[in-house]
Structure formats: C-alpha cells, structure tokens
Amino acid sequence: MEEVKTMEKASDEAMDAVQYIVVKIGNEQYGINIQYIDNIVRNQRITRVPKAQSYYKGVINLRGEIIPVMSIRLKLGLEDDNYTDKTRIIIIKVDGATIGVIVDQVKEVVTLESTDIETVARSGSLVGSGYISAIGKSNDELISLLDIVALIEES
C-alpha cells in the first residue's frame, strides 16, 4: 500500500513540474513554457511589412507558411536585435495563431517544480514586467518566466 502512495505522490509532483526553454535576450535569461513552442529555426531573411508595429520585424516563409516575426527585445523596451550565429526564431503557437519571436540564444530546457517558481507582482513601473509571470530558480540561476500568451495576444 505504501508503494501506491509513493507512486501517487511522484505523479502529483510530475504534474506540478513544467518544462521551459531557457533563452537569452541581452544579458538576461527568460523561460518560455515548452507547450507553446512549435519549432526553433535559425535566423533567416525576414521580409519587412509596411506600417506594422515597431516590434514586428516582418514575416518569414517557413515551409510554405507565412509567419509574422516579432522582436521580444523591442516588445520589452530593450535595444534593437543584434543578429549573431546564435540568434534563433522560436515559432510559437497560441490559440491557433502562429508567430515567430527572435531570441539572442537558445540555452537549454529546464524542468521547474512549483517549489522552484515564485510569482511576481505585476507592476507597470518595471519595463516589460507585465510580460513576466514568475521567476524560476534552476542551478542557482534566476530565470524570468515569460507570459508568452500576454506577449503575443496584446500584439
């Protein structure tokens, strides 16, 4: 009977665990919930779209699908993107919509338990704070967890 309780507890803990892909934007690390990620592609030619919001870089053609591409840096009020060989476009799917977001570097995938995550008060005084849902702790490093739905849907 104790084995059953141990297994139930393990499965409860697994349900509390969420995987995040850790990306670098500037000097900071951000986590994006892996459930929204469809693909990660190398930086490619982005076709500009006239009269789009300043944080939209344009569109890409990914295997015949036209996908809008957004700069998280500009959306968070940071300096413009600096493209390197580590720059990636993360293809995100939210509520049937597909969008690409530019990140400086994809680092790793981490699994965070609920005990590793602390929610933050949403305050308009911090730049981009409305898009940070929580702070995660992994290997003694802090990861700002992006509310990717809020980031995309406000677009």
From TrEMBL:
It comes from the Bacteria. It holds the Pfam family CheW. Residues 17-155 form the CheW-like domain. This is Purine-binding chemotaxis protein CheW.
